[in-house]
UniProtKB/TrEMBL annotation:
Gene3D superfamilies cross-referenced by the UniProt entry: Rhodanese-like domain (3.40.250.10)
Protein name per Swiss-Prot or TrEMBL: Rhodanese-like domain-containing protein
Organism ancestry: Bacteria, Deltaproteobacteria, Dissulfurirhabdaceae, Dissulfurirhabdus
Molecular function as annotated in GO: thiosulfate-cyanide sulfurtransferase activity
Chain ranges of the Rhodanese domain: 36-118
């Protein structure tokens, strides 16, 4: 496989991934948009160790989405929810659970915590 073909394949898979979640009602949100989103419930589904290392200020750690249903009961369904993992590939599964639970404004942090940290470093 040529380099160009490999790049095209990765791009197609990435776009397909996001479009699939979009169709399910989980919208991507950039780190900048997360910072500007007021009143959001930030759900971090990474392990406790990953969360302790770094996390978005104000995020609640629910590793692997455990306890998500109970935690969701404490929040109004019209409150925006941003779900966070390390790379943006674990969080959509928890985000979909929240959509199915009736939350209307559910977002996945694009690029996950890795993207958030890169954005913070570049925006200094």
């Amino acid at each position: 496989m040529t380099t160009a073909a490999a790049v095209a394949l990765v791009a197609a898979l990435t776009v397909g991934w996001d479009l699939g979640w979009w169709a399910a009602g989980v919208r991507p949100l950039s780190p900048r948009q997360v910072e500007r989103l007021e009143g959001a419930w930030l759900v971090d589904v990474r392990t406790p160790g990953e969360f302790a290392w770094r996390h978005v200020p104000g995020a609640e750690n629910l590793p692997g989405g455990r306890g998500l249903t109970a935690a969701a009961a404490a929040h109004p369904k019209d409150r925006p929810v941003v779900v966070i993992c390390f790379s943006g590939h674990r969080s959509p599964f928890a985000a979909l659970r929240l959509r199915r639970a009736g939350f209307r404004r559910v977002y996945n942090l694009t690029g996950g915590m890795a993207g958030y940290l890169a954005w913070k470093a570049l925006s200094r």
